[in-house]
Sequence to fold (756 residues):
Amino acid sequence: MKTRKLLDYRKLAFNFHFAAFFVLSIVTLIPLAYTFRLSLFDYQLSKPGSLNIFIGLKNYKVLFTDPGFYKSLGITLIYVISSVSLEMVVGIILSLILHQIPFLRRMFSSMILVPMLIAPLVIGLIFSFFTNPQFGLYTHLVTKFKLPLPIVLLDKPVKALVTLIIMDVWQWAPYMTLIFLAGLQSIEGEYFEAADIDGCNGWQKFWKITMPLLKPIISVSVLLRAMEALKEFDKPYIYSGGGPGNATEVIDLYTYRQAFSSFKFSYASALCVVLFVLLLILGRIYQKFMMNKDL
Amino acid sequence: MKKFFMLILFVTILSMSLYAGGAGEKKVKDDVSDPLKQFSGVTLHMIAEQSAPTDSLKTLLPDFEKMTGIKVDLETAPYDDVVQKETLAFASGQGMYDVISAPYEFLGNMVENGYIQSIEPFLNSPKVGLVPGFDKNDFVKKLWDACGEWKGKLYGTPANPCTMFFGYRKDVFENEIEKKNFKSKYGYELEIPATWKEYKDMAEFFTRKRGENLAGVKLTQDFYGVSMSGKRHPAMVFEWMNYMWSFGGAIFDEKGNLVIDSKENEAALSYYVDLAKYAPPGVTSKTWDEQTTEIQQGIVAMAILFNDCAPSIEDENESNVAGKMGYGQIPAEAMPVSHFGGWGFYIPSDSKNAEAAWLFLEWYNTPKVQSELARQGIFPCLTSTYNDPEFASIPYWEASKDAYDICSSRPRIPEWNNMCEVMQLELSKAIAKEKSPKAALASVNSAFIPILQDVLPVLYQ
Fold:
């Protein structure tokens, strides 16, 4: 009787999983397999009849000697590390402020959601109007108050990249803030009471209680954001077009250009596969964090 | 319950069959005796750039539908996305579009890949000229050759032709104080620049700070000599190619060999990079859109621009300089130059309604439609419309006609898109002073070699 019940459960579980697996296969696995297959060919839309030219791993060989790939990968890493670190710091500071002042929390918790709700492409457009050297509000403020800031932001590689990082921080720091705020609210007050009795000051309480207890949440949020930021495309595409030169050409933009401007579909597929592997590694780290029972 | 579901299923199938029957019925020709109505009920799927010419075309489509009974489902997309959407549609081979609008430089790519079909069977058919007023001899030949002809065969018709010319603030150029000051500083008259030296002199002369005078009026904001498109974008490459040709440079020499890193090209790029100091700040973030805005705002004295920007510059509702502009030709040193930048209408090979699509192309190229487009500020494709006295008073009309006479096309080979991408990157680096003009062109040359290895020498472009 018990075995039969178990079998029924297994059948039921299989049915449930099959539906999910079927949908996943269609929307994820099949395109992924097709992308990998395409990366083994020399399919270029500008080369008639190239769809069936099998070249094995040549695209990967070319990719690992392509300076454009390394440059865009380097830019992406700088972008991800800088923006996510800043988002984390801003998120912690804002969440601490909001946690300490309930009045502000009530007022701002829904307001700070706004940047997250705007499509990245629209954010790129908003910033390009905002920082327009002729009629942008930013230009007006810098000129009017004689602020020690540059008016033109897209003429030098470093300035352009920094602007994009600030744009990302503006969009995603609120996300971090909300997550950390939820984390802060879940910390038991008893820890702080005990610390008070032991005579700890605020700084000690922050480093010895708040941060260790927030650490798992911070780690997971940072990982999730890093995975998202690695796939950045919209903002540099619309704001700087990857320029000046290739100073803001992140890996997704580079891949897009290879596919849709140079029409090298197979090479772009190889780039996608490499990016997928990178994300997979990050995903595994994330999974490890989630599985860790100490968290 | 089971019966209920069966009933629902039956009703659904029945209604779908009725709908399908109805749709089929709709395809029955309204009037078989009228050849213009022979495709009545057909829907043409079309894609074009989201732009002023397309907006104007939309306003005229009801006339086409009324005349032929053919419905046009017009999809629009921004410049960067149109070709991508079309290419993906071609690759799928599903016959998604019956008429496409594409920049003419993709002609070679589309033909060599078999994506579009020749229009010659339609042109040579006894049915040609079915639409009253259509005359294949009325096309401006240079436009039709650039947009439609590939290796001796015709594949499309021109659409939204535009070419680059010189635009300047006529009111300040003709101001007596400015003329006098210019002559005393440079020793010659202030007129439309004929050489690049004069062009730079004028750019320098007109670059002024807020508070200085311009044409006797105190400036309330900085004023600049030129407006330029320096963003990593096709706009920059197209603009620079005018300098390249005028300086005597080229991408391929007469034997089809690559000469992108020639001395002439280096001189043209050095000049272009240096000229940027007389342009409003942020050249590296500008395309033709921002350039048009700068002119409209009245903060620049002159520019090399596409003539299809001129209608919005002359629009009093949009521009501070409407009626104050003059138009002429780009300085010509080695040769007269005007970079042609039109689009073409093409019929994809997988179109299911090729004949109806051709009827649309005929209708679009009738003097009636072209004149209506011209009234809305769009450049026509027909000689008769250019010569129509109705349009002679438009400020940029004559200069445009002259520019079409001397215009040059960019390469239309399948590799061009890839080449343009490389040029955007390297020229952008030169403007951002990341690389010297010489190093940037050397990099372009190195990147071109693998792209062109199978097609050099390029004797047909």
About this structure: Chain B touches chain A through 34 residues (CB under 8 Å). The two ends of chain B are 69 Å apart (CA to CA). DSSP finds 19 helices and 13 strands in chain B. The first helix of chain B runs from residue 2 to 26.
